[in-house]
Write a structure and sequence with these properties.
By secondary structure, this protein is of the alpha+beta class. The protein is built from 9 helices and 9 strands. The model has no long low-confidence stretch (mean pLDDT 92).
């Protein structure tokens, strides 16, 4: 086997993953975590899920518990966020519409017994503008416990991302994202979905990780979720996903610099430095060159 074969295999896998998402709007990766990783995730979350009050609202639910800011509360979630296969999918889907992607949120969700089914919705609804058919968001639901139709597994309407949102869409057209614990269900932000009703006697627990375009306002305010001393301990890739990066042209800077430098806390005045897309940088050079003669 040639030295380049592993890269070809990865490219074919990525192509197949993207094809499934474009066609169906979702993709399930069974047992993406080991049994040990899944047990660690469940253990790190339990304290927070037990102490957090249930939600209040017709969207969040009345018999559901939600916990955010998981990168420090349950450190193994960092591993989920940086999953190489999923990050590659997120980059491939979202980068055509942005200079860099970012982490939209991390959230543990526990659907308790007797919780009703959630209303059909799309997570891209949080941004009040037409996406014009482009991808703005990729969701990943990680199963901390087994997801079954009885205990409220996420319901998906396959291929619904190709049509207009219809909150009265027929439930018979939906499927249950049933999967064993440790699995991950990826679905587009434009796919109609809903948390299922829990008819069982036990809670259903999952972790949502989502990625969005780097120029959008995120669902979770990452700068409040993690103090600077905590962020400094994260790997740089994670720091940048949290928003410590420039989005060209010149969005999200700090003193005219890449905000990753803020973590160095130098305290000295900084020179503003252009952070332009190659296209704009070329246009500006040509503009001044045409006038210099």
């Amino acid at each position: 086997m040639s030295a380049t074969a592993p890269f070809l295999i990865r490219d074919r896998q990525l192509d197949a993953d993207i094809e499934a998402l474009e066609r169906d709007g979702y993709l399930i990766l069974n047992e993406a975590l080991s049994a040990h990783e899944t047990a660690t995730l469940a253990g790190e979350l339990e304290h927070w899920l037990e102490r957090t009050p249930k939600c209040q609202g017709d969207f969040y639910g009345w018999e559901t518990t939600r916990v955010g800011g998981l990168l420090s509360k349950a450190p193994i979630v960092q591993h989920l966020v940086l999953n190489a296969r999923i990050l590659a999918i997120a980059e491939a889907l979202l980068r055509p519409s942005c200079d860099c992607i970012q982490l939209n949120l991390t959230q543990a969700t526990r659907v308790h017994p007797s919780e009703r089914g959630q209303a059909p919705h799309r997570d891209e609804e949080m941004w009040p503008w037409s996406t014009q058919g482009r991808h703005w968001l990729l969701n990943v639901m990680w199963a901390v416990s087994d997801f079954t139709e009885e205990n409220g597994a996420t319901r998906l309407w396959p291929s619904s991302h190709r049509a207009e949102l219809d909150r009265s869409i027929d439930p018979i057209d939906s499927i249950s994202a049933s999967m064993p614990k440790g699995s991950a269900c990826l679905f587009l932000g434009s796919l109609t979905h809903a948390a299922g009703a829990n008819y069982s006697n036990a809670p259903r627990t999952g972790v949502i990780v989502s990625y969005c375009l780097g120029w959008l306002k995120t669902y979770e305010n990452q700068f409040l979720a993690y103090p600077m001393e905590v962020v400094r301990c994260f790997p740089e890739r994670l720091q940048r996903l949290l928003g410590f990066q420039m989005h060209r042209p010149n969005l999200g800077g700090w003193e005219g610099q890449d905000p990753i430098r803020w973590l160095d806390d130098c305290g000295e005045p900084q020179a503003h430095v252009d952070a332009l897309t190659p296209e704009i940088a070329t246009q500006l050079r040509e503009h001044y060159a045409a006038r210099s003669g």
